[in-house]
Structure prediction request, 758 residues.
Amino acid sequence: MRRFSTVPFAGTKQQEQQLRAWLEEHKQMPGVTMPALQKAQEIYGYLPIEVQRIVADVLGRPLAEVYGISTFYAQFSLCPKGAYKISVCLGTACYVKGSGKIYEQLQEKLGITGGECTADGKFSLDACRCIGACGLAPVMTINDDVYGRLTGDELDEILAKY
Amino acid sequence: MYRSNVMVCGGTGCTSSGSDAIARAFEEEIRAVGLEKEVRVVRTGCFGLCALGPVVVIYPEGTFYSMVKEEHVKEIVDEHLLKGRPVTKYLYSETVAEDGSVKALDDTPFYRKQLRIALRNCGRIDPENIEEYIAFDGYRALGKVLTEMTPEQVIQTVLDSGLRGRGGAGFPTGLKWRFAAGNAADQKYVCCNADEGDPGAFMDRSILEGDPHVVIEAMAIAAYAIGASQGYIYVRAEYPIAVHRLQVAIAQARQYGLLGRDIFGTGFDFDVDVKLGAGAFVCGEETALMTSIEGKRGEPRPRPPFPAVKGLFGKPTILNNVETYANVPQIILNGADWFRAMGTEKSKGTKVFALGGKINNTGLVEIPMGTTLRTIVEEIGGGIPGGKKFKAAQTGGPSGGCIPASLIDTPIDYDNLIAIGSMMGSGGLIVMDEDTCMVDIAKFFLEFTVDESCGKCTPCRVGTKRLLELLNKITDGKGTMEDLDKITELAEFIKANSLCGLGQTAPNPVLSTLRYFRDEYVEHIRNKRCPAGVCKALLNYQIDPVKCKGCTLCARACPAGAISGTVRQPHRIDTAKCVKCGACMEKCKFGAISKG
Prediction:
């Protein structure tokens, strides 16, 4: 299920210029749409419909096609993310070591469900597939920080750091 | 020349536990004692023993420091590097003999039975330095094929070696190459599947992180064999270290003239580009992967036409996975017979497994085909933590199945795994103990496939969803015995009618758990009990009034206010209010709370 953002679009002229310049430069590359959306998400942090429209316009593709691609891949988000992106690994190795429960506890503590962002824009929570740190299971990441061998008791302390 | 090399693991596992800071600390301390001209710090790929990360190995001795912390670094530099005395208290305990002498790493139970071919350079070289790869025979195989062999001889060698695809289905690699070679076209492509989507498998990532050139070299060999000039590596965007090292490796190979035009002056042109995936499990399927490289929704398409005829951008294409490629240069250098000598009758060579779950030595292991599960779990894996009992191992991820304890002596190869209802898959091997509920595990994998089904064909899109609903009914305590028959019927239907490998294998985790752990399903249905104590709806938490000291810890931990009682008096749980979160049980110091 895709959630649509109710946060109004706040892209800047600069961001738009940056995106348009990249698109113009790479337009001819075979299979450009996916890298274009990856670039757009890098610039804006997510892919609101306004941004998808720019991509579609410059590449000369139908918006429906661009939308089809941005909703197909898990990496693309149509909602803005929090300043701190929490991602709990629900890969098999982490799952058998209890990451499912960690994920539940975080949803409770933050008062949001997976995929959402807290009202103050501070934290967003997602489940992710294996990040490959199976030796540290169960694992979660907050932006670039990795927390391994997690227990539920540590969560408050970890969240308080941000 | 350096007299000593400090190899700090820079794989994802160890990096996650802070190995980069440790590498920097070593560099600083080494400078502080003035050894920077004699001792070098290298950030390597994965050593395999991820459970003990961060790992540091010091050569020439080969001493293995495990779970290294920044505060250990100074002591190691002072004692080991300056005075030549390994600091045994920080060494991996298995490498220290009773008399305090240090044993070779290959003598430890974890490494003794391993045979590293695909992983041969992981942990041994600096992956960001092409010269180190070349020093270990790198690009020699490419030189050999370009100057001494015809494309047909290359294909015959790979075919004779018996190498089969390491990504899942086990199709003979040489045969795939021969099909593509036989189709004339103005342009052909060589692709590498590095979209390792099976949750719990990370061998491809480790190879890319530890030895990226091996993949590039093998792709060039494949390109020569089939007559292609362009390659694509499709890699998960979630693997930033692997992507970075690949890009470094490609740039270096271009600079050395090992990629690009007229390689080795033979007139052979070949180049490689990296394409980033965006998180879609179905893109591990070959036609879906190619559609995704084309920048579209990564949906599979019917075969034939096979990619060898009509693949990427409509041209003949071969696709192999990372581990398959990692074997190729060694096969070319050592010959097909050398490779054939390892493994079982129909599965040659080695296989890398990502060992995870309820096992002591989590990590990467490479073993000859035909090694038994018992050897992997009990010897290499070091058994199960907390003295618990081995219940099953799961291979093949969401497409595979479970191997129960009764089949622990099965030699692992492609055909044996299929025969017992699982599959090799990419090599995830998750160990489960008595605390794992098999119905819940089947549900876990099915939730994954429901989520990842691309939606193109109905049997997979609707079928897996209905199957999951039936399982949910059972774990909610509302299942009937007829549901088990419905599950089997539906599962067989999905297998027979889905378009691609994702759907065709999606029911495997359900069918295999039903085959070996039917009792558990029946227990959920008839007695509304989850024997492993996992399925929430079937759990009841109880306080033993004899053991309870009335300390009130549990009552304070309960988020639902379901626990009542006065201080120093036995407490009780109101099951109607209980949300079964288990917080009380975790807090209780007297073991008075049980679930069942």
Summary: The beta strands of chain A are 84-89, 123-128, 140-142, 145-147. DSSP finds seven helices and four strands in chain A. The longest strand of chain A covers residues 84-89.
